[in-house]
Amino acid sequence: MKKILFVVMVLLCTQYATFAQTTAVKEKAAAMQQVHDFLKKCGTYYLATVDGDQPRVRPFGTIHIFDGKLYIQTGHKKRVAQQLAKNPKAEICAFNGQQWIRVKTTLLEDKRKEAKQSMLDANPSLKSMYSVDDPNTLVLYMKDTTATISSFSGKDVVLEF
């Protein structure tokens, strides 16, 4: 009887762990999608990096989900790429007229052709400046990300992925 009870307990724990894992993955995917949709709707967002002891901010517009990660795109030759190579921590800010989003993240390079192709396919206007085989094409994915959506009238919404 004790053996059967033990086996049942192990099975229940395993099922719960699987359920909890699946739920966490779905929550992270939903958070990522919400950040993607917010930034996409804004059209332009502002990416901040560090250059020595000086913050640098510039407008960006590419945002794309590929292979379960949220990506942006730039060129290796740009200063932003050099800054991120030295310190991959970055922040993004955008405003949609009623709410703003602040995204704290680490941006890491994905050298895979599939990631580059997916970004170019999702943003056809980039194809006149970049290609999959162009060594200047740089796609970066977000890691350890916390996004906060705020407004003047409501509670902050915090999203993590």
What is the structure about, briefly put?
With about 160 residues, the protein is of the alpha+beta class. The protein has helices spanning about 1-40, 80-85, 115-120, and strands spanning about 45-50, 55-60, 65, 70-75, 90-95, 100-110, 135-150, 155-160.
Describe the structure.
The protein has helices at residues 2-42, 79-86, 113-122, and strands at 45-51, 54-60, 64-66, 69-75, 89-95, 99-109, 137-151, 157-160. The chain has a single domain, classed as Roll (Pnp Oxidase, Chain A). A hairpin with a 2-residue loop joins β1 and β2 (54-60). Strands 1, 2, 3, 4, 5, 6, 7 and 8 form an eight-stranded antiparallel β-sheet that branches. The protein is globular. It is an alpha+beta fold and 161 residues long. It is built from three helices and eight strands; from the N terminus they run αββββαββαββ. The longest helix has 41 residues, at 2-42.
- Average per-residue pLDDT, rounded, comes to 92
Task: Please write the CATH class name.
Answer: Mainly Beta
CATH homology superfamily name: Electron Transport, Fmn-binding Protein, Chain A
Looking at the structure, what is the overall shape? globular
Helical proportion? 25-40%
Distance between the termini: 43 Å
Oligomer: single chain
Alpha-beta content class: alpha+beta
Instruction: Give the number of domains.
Output: 1
Q: Biggest β-sheet, characterized?
A: 8 strands, antiparallel
Low-confidence stretches: none
Radius of gyration equals: 20 Å
Number of helices: 3
Work out the strand percent: 35-45%
**Mind telling me which CATH architecture this is?**
Roll
Taken in chain order, the helices and strands follow as HEEEEHEEHEE
Topology-level CATH name: Pnp Oxidase, Chain A
- How many β strands by DSSP? 8
